[in-house]
Amino acid sequence: MATDLQRAPYTTLRTQCPPAWIDVNQHMNATHYTLVVYDAHVALTDILGLGDDYVAQTGCGKVVLESHLVYEREVGLGDELEVRSWLLAVDAKRLHFFHELYNLSRDCRAAIAEQVDMHVDLGARRSAPFPDWKLRQLQDVVRQMLSQPYPEGVGSRLRPPVNDWLQTTQS
Q1: Per residue, what are the HEC states of 67-115?
Q2: How far apart are CA 116 and CA 149, in angstroms?
Q3: At CA 139, angle to CA 135 and CA 140, rounded to 5?
Q4: Mean pLDDT of the chain
Q5: pTM, whole model, 2 decimals?
Q6: How far apart are the C-alpha atoms of 143 and 6, rounded to whole Å?
Q7: What is the mean pLDDT of residues 3-29?
Q8: What is the three-class DSSP state of 122?
Q9: Distance between alpha carbon 120 and the CA centroid of its chain, in Å?
Q10: Nearest 5°: phi and psi at 40?
């Protein structure tokens, strides 16, 4: 693996919000939060040794099973952004990732994103266990990540509105 385990979480992306990302509400459009996190996730995949070289060597890759993004603060034109990425759990076939998008210009966390990926055999197009050597490497990363303070917001859920008005109109 190409990074120092003592520096967890990993800084996986630094960028600035350009004019093209600003929407009619004069802040970064939701689409671009997703794209920033995606680019950071690709960088983390490479850091973990699961990128193109791994795919070529093993014929295996990973696919997203579940993803959740929470918008916490606005990002404005020109704001400096940084993504800090975590690998929080791994089992024989799955990985649990967490990304924090920081707005360095406003000194706040702007969003969090969480996802679970599945390791797959790309020839068979089916889930497959990690090779033992790779699983051990990933477990070492998780062990180091979990030695750091746990990031706030892991496991967050949707908070949809409740249709209380239905009960009063149907009575």
Answers
A1: EEEEECCCCCCCCEEEEEEEEEEECCCEEEEEEEEEECCCCEEEEEEEE
A2: 21
A3: 120
A4: 94
A5: 0.91
A6: 11
A7: 89
A8: coil
A9: 19
A10: -65, -40
